Amino acid sequence: MTSLIEAEHLTRILPATVPVTLVRDVSLTVGEREFIAITGPSGSGKSSLLYLLGLLDRPTSGSLRIAGHDTSALDDDALARLRLETLGFVFQFHFLLPEFSVLENVMLPMRKMGRLSSAEMRARAASLLEDLGLAGHLDKRPDQLSGGQRQRVAVARALANDPHMVLADEPTGSLDSKSSEQVFQILRDLVHKRGKTVIAVTHDLDIAARADRRIHLVDGRVVSDERVAQAAG
Ligand SMILES: Nc1ncnc2c1ncn2[C@@H]1O[C@H](COP(=O)(O)OP(=O)(O)OP(=O)(O)O)[C@@H](O)[C@H]1O
């Protein structure tokens, strides 16, 4: 199995008068088609670890290979490119651009990548949105949608460039229970139907319980990393 992430002894220390250690000596390997929940108490470093794995931050020490690329050897532009090609993000707050339509929001990462024509970008964005149950909403602005619908647009945007992995930081954290369940099902389908790897930071014990692998952090350290056999369905 190809490793999408190979992290060895990752540590992230924030320089300050009293330095703050966000992530301590984390080593882990992530392969294809994994559905991973990162859990832990508030302040245990879950988001900090996700940002390192998602190339939104750099470690103070340790090594990180993403899709076979040694990230320490890459400058910021190359890192941004690797991020665009291999990773999609879903955050707790959707971060959709309010002045753009739903369709345009999903096209944006494709524009940055610069590989498709306008017509191809439109068709791909529309198809992703339709798959996520948003067919009637392509020309709306994000503020015309419900929270759950906006989060589904954020998932479509994360999939825009057909990444290997989707990283999600509390993806259901601001949703009601029905929308949370929908977003959970969508994330699970990304793994089981589209073959993506999904890593989700979550406080939601129900989601964590139904992930295929749970990584638990305490004080910036991995204290358990367990794979769980799930019943089908
Ligand atoms: N820029 C910063 N400056 C100072 N401290 C920070 C900064 N970013 C994070 N921290 C601290 O580092 C620790 C880890 O933060 P992080 O957000 O990664 O934890 P978390 O497990 O995701 O927390 P939560 O579940 O509350 O979102 C926390 O104690 C946090 O207060």
UniProtKB/TrEMBL annotation:
Descriptive protein name: Lipoprotein-releasing system ATP-binding protein
Family that this chain belongs to: Belongs to the ABC transporter superfamily. Macrolide exporter (TC 3.A.1.122) family.
Domain ABC transporter: 5-231
Swiss-Prot/TrEMBL keywords: ATP-binding, Cell inner membrane, Cell membrane, Hydrolase, Lipoprotein, Membrane, Nucleotide-binding, Translocase, Transport
Molecular-function GO terms, alphabetical: ATP binding; ATP hydrolysis activity; transmembrane transporter activity
Domain of life assignment: Bacteria
One GO term describing the cellular component: membrane protein complex
Signal peptide: none
InterPro entries linked: AAA+_ATPase, ABC_transporter-like_ATP-bd, ABC_transporter-like_CS, ABC_transpr_LolD-like, MacB-like_ATP-bd, P-loop_NTPase
EC category name: hydrolase
Keyword GTP-binding in record: no
Transport found in the keyword field: yes
SUPFAM superfamilies tied to this protein: P-loop containing nucleoside triphosphate hydrolases (SSF52540)
EC number, as in UniProt: 3.6.3.-
